[in-house]
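tool_log.txt
---
The assistant was asked to compare two proteins side by side. It first ran the structure predictor on the initial sequence, then on the second. Raw inputs and outputs are pasted verbatim so the downstream comparison step can read them without reformatting.
(1)
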Amino acid sequence: MLKLYNTLTRQKEEFKPLEGNTARIYSCGPTVYNFAHIGNLRTYVFMDILRKVLKNNGYTLNHVMNITDVGHLVSDSDDGEDKMLKTAKQQQKTPLEIAEYYTNVFFKDIKKLNIETPELTPKATEHIKEMIDFVVTLCDRGYGYETSDGIYFDIEKFSGYGKLSRLDLEGQQAGARVDVNTEKRHPADFAIWKKAPKEHIMQWESPWGMGYPGWHIECSAMGRKYLGDYFDIHTGGVDHIPVHHENEIAQSEALLGHPAVKTWMHSEFLLVNNGKMSKSLGNTYTVSDLEKEGFSPLAFRYLCLNGNYRNKLNFTWDGLKASQTALDRLYDLVLS
């Protein structure tokens, strides 16, 4: 009997596919505006282990991992400049050129880590129609409302908001952010479509004028298109729980009238020297950084396997060296 830990219920539950012998899975993929660092990649190592466990248990996989090439702002809510546009301006390239370059690097990196590519890897920019249709339906059902800068989801219309992260909405303060959007009915209301200024590089026609999708809507729209109205597993990092996945649940269940996902699974953070990984600290290492120091990418995968995916894992260069040594001994044993 295979049991999986469900973040939503906080329990281990027996896994049985909803339909036949096929496990239908959605994994939040990369936002392709920069190199994926090893903290990001730990989540994909977990995703790959899950794939292999399911296949080893005899299940067929229908696995979708999106490529976010539009609609993800600097923060995980609705604040700041779009990451794709910011990098495009810095490198003086088009957003699509940026997306294509970093998408290719990402797939090369996961191949080096022996991570299988999911059966489907759809791009957000190729599914704008599905996202617009999703937003239109939400508005028709009273969950979406228009402001001067976009269409927002009214979380107070959805009684289950906060159930994944166990959020205390009553205790949230709008002043927690520097810039408060006074047009929003609740500080936690999130954008499902953004209106674009004329100078915005990425924008599409919509019932609300030219604009672009909110980050969260893409996963709901593409998950539904490729996996149906109710599928088995949704994976991601724990950083997705309080905002991205909470919002996915709200908009999907508001549209469908029932849950869209049976089991939610999340991989914990990767620490560096027992501290936070951040660009400001200069410790957001990439696969290339590991290779430059003489390590095999598979030594990092070996390091990941030394801890449970639901526990924080500490990365140190000494720890990676020990993993490389253990991996080399394993190679010698197999080849001898």
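(2)
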Amino acid sequence: MGWILVVAVAWLFLLVLAVAILRSAAEADRAAERRRQEPRPRPATSERRRRAARAAVIVVAVPLAGATLGARDADAVGCKTARAASQMPAPSATLCLINHQRRAHGLASLVGNARLGRAATLHAWDMIHRGYFAHTSPDGIGFAERLRRAGYIRGCTSWAVGETLAWGSGTESSPWSRVAAWMHSPPHRAVLLGATYREAGIAVLNGTPGMGPRGFTYVGEFGRRHC
């Protein structure tokens, strides 16, 4: 009889333990359900403002990432012909910055010339697509011949012309950085500040001779003619 009593006590203990476990599980389920039904607290006002500010920065930054001019190109505002540097196409901003340098050195501003601009654009395109970077093309065409073919010096009795080239990527691809680089190079500086020149054509094309589509290629054509 003794072992029967031991078994009965063991079964009774297990039964009580099982009931306690089931009761605890039910209470946990009810607590979880109450938490799901309770409204979540709204974030504090300062936190909501911080989130809104972060969103506004992202929205504002998207157009700047694809803009033609960088933040440092604000110097172009100093040009009398510039409306706002951040609104200007890269060729116009480049010429604007060059004229800013010329006026600072007591020289006359250059005016844009469509034929010089056409010659500059064709040469920039040719360098990008044929993969070279030089004033003379692989087939021996120099910039004076390019200007003649563009109609700038054809039939003229006298003329003076010059050319500057540049390419860059990232922060080194903006009009500000390219004009600054030209001004720090004595041969290029001499062209930009050439007292003889009165007209210019600037081309800025997406793509480079050395890095493919990353970056921009710059060509500046400068001249004066008597026709």
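---
observation on (2): Residues 3-22, 31-77 have pLDDT under 50 and may be disordered. DSSP finds seven helices and four strands in the chain.
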